Predict the structure.
Amino acid sequence: MPTKNKFLKRILIWRYKHISEQQFVYALSILVGLLAGLGTAVLKNLTFFIENVLEGKFIKDFHYSLYFIFPIIGLVLVHIIKTKILKKEIGHGISTTLHAVSKRNGIIKRYKIYTSLITAPITVGFGGSAGLQGPAVSTGAALGSTVAQLFHMNTKTRMLLIGCATAGAMSSMFKAPFAAIVFAVEIFSLDLAFASLVPLLLASVSAVITSYFFFENDALLGFKLVDTFQTKDIFYYILLAFGTGVASVYFSKTYFWITNFFKRIKRPIHRLFFGGIAIGIMLYLIPPLYGEGYGLINNLLKGNNLAALEDIPYNVDFENVWIVIAFLLLITIFKAIAMTTTFAAGGVGGIFIPTLVMGSALGNVFAKIINQLGGDVSESNFTLIGMTGLMAGVLHAPLTAIFLIAEITGGYELFVPLMLVAAISFAFTKYFIENSIYTTELAKKGELITHNKDKNVLMMMKIDRLIETNFKAVYPDMLLGEMLKKAVAKSTRNIFPVINKDKQFLGIVLLDDIRSIMFDAEMYNSVTVETVMKSAPEIIFHDDTVGQIMQKFKSSDAWNLPVIKNERYIGFISKSKLLTAYRNKLIEVTG
C-alpha cells in the first residue's frame, strides 16, 4: 500500500477512535475554508500581477492601442492551454459546480482545482472583461469535493463541504464572511439548519482569515458609508430599482443571445478569432471595460470621475457631467456584451463581478441625472445600491446582494433602500427571466437544485440504476407454444416486452392475458404473440427525469413500465424499485 494511503488510513482510524462524526465535519470545514481562501488568494495575486505588468508597464508607458492587442493575446494563450496542455473542458465555475451537485452527487473531478487557477488570471489579467468569483468558487468547490472523497464522506457531507468551499471563496474574495454564508445557502439551496450552519461559519471565518493574512486590510471594495439614508429619496430608489430590473433583463438576454450566436460557429478557433477581434475593439474604444473593473467601482464610490474614466483616450471635458453620464451609460450597455464575448471566445471567468461594475455605473448615472435635474441625492449610495439591484436581478440572489453591500460598507444604515431595491429588481427580473444565468441550462433539463428536498432527491437519482433487464422479450410473429417454451417457462416475471428484430418496442404481453389459453395445446400453433399483445399504459424514455417517471406511474397506475432509448427497448422500471431507490436516496442526502 502506498505511503499516502497508509497515512490516510491512520488518520481515519484515529478519527473513528477519538472524535465524533460531527467534530470531524467541523475540522474538515475549517480545512476546506482555508484551502478555498488560499485558492482565491492565489487567483487574485496572479491576476493582479499580470494586470500590473501589462496595464501598468506597457499600456500606460507605450500606447493605449495595446488595449486592443492584449485581450486577444490572452484568449489565444487560454485556447492553447485548454486544447494543447490541459486538454480538458473547463466550463463556467458556478454553473458547472451546480451541475456536479445536482447530477454527480457532488463528485467533482480533481483537475478542476487547477484549471481555473491557470486560465482565469490569464483571461482577466490580459484584459478579458470578466470576474474571478466564478473561478474562485470552481476551485474551492473542487477542493471541497476532493477533501470529502479523500476522507470517504457521504453524499450529504460532500454537498455541505462544497457549500463550505463556496462560502470560503466568497468570504476570501470580498472579506464578507456573513454574506458568503448567505451566498452559499441562496445559490446552492443548502439547508440553513444548525448542522450545516456551524460548518459554513467555520469555513467562512477560516477563509477570511486567510485573506487577511495575504492582503492584510486591503479590500477589493474598500468603502465606508459617508452619507446616511434619507426618507425623501425613497421615490428615487424605487425608480433605480426598476432601472436595475430593466438592466438585469438586458444583461441576461444579452448573455443568452450572444452565447447562442457563438454556438452557431462550430470551430473554436473561429469563435476565438471573431470574439477576440470584437472584445479588442470594445476595449480599445472603451478602456474601462478592461479586466474586472474594481478601479471604476472604487473611483465612482469616492466621487472621482476623472480617475474612473482616465483611461478613455478621447479629448473630452470630463468636468462636464453630461459627458461623464454618457460614458458611464456606454460602460453600462457594453459591459454585458464585453463579458459574454469574452466567454464565447473561449475565455474563463465569472459573471458576478461584471454585474457589480454594471450596477455601479448605472446607479451613479441615476444619481448624476437626478442631481443635474435639481435633486440632491448621494452618488455613492446610489452607486452601491445600483450594484445591489443588478446582483439581485441578474444572479437571482437578493439576500446575497443585500448583505454583501451592507457588510463591505461596514454598516447597515442603507438596509431599507438595499431591501427595497433588491426586492423590486429581483421580482421584476423574475417576471421576464425565470432562471438566472447560473441555472437556466440546468432548469431546462430539470436538474436544478432547489430548497424542495423531494424534488432534489428525485433529480439526483439516476435512471440507469433503476432499469431492470431480466424480462424475456418476444416477437410479434412468435407462436404461443414457442412463447411459452422460450419465455414464460424461463421467466420469473409476469410481463413480456414485444419487440421486432431491430429491438424496437411494439407492446407487451401480460401473463394474465394468456392464462386462459396457455394450457390449451390446440392454441399453441394457431395463436401468435401479435394476437394477444397490447400497448403499454405508458412508455418511459431514457431522457425522462425521475419526476416525470413518477408522474407516468401515477397516471397509468402501472407497476412496470418499459424504457425506450433511441427508439429501442432496453428494459423496464418497476414502481417498487423506484420507490425503494427514492427512499434510500432520501436517507443518503438528508441523513
Observations:
- The first helix runs from residue 3 to 18.
- Strands lie at 495-499, 505-510, 540-541, 560-565, 568-574.
- The chain has a mean pLDDT of 84.
- The longest strand covers residues 568-574.
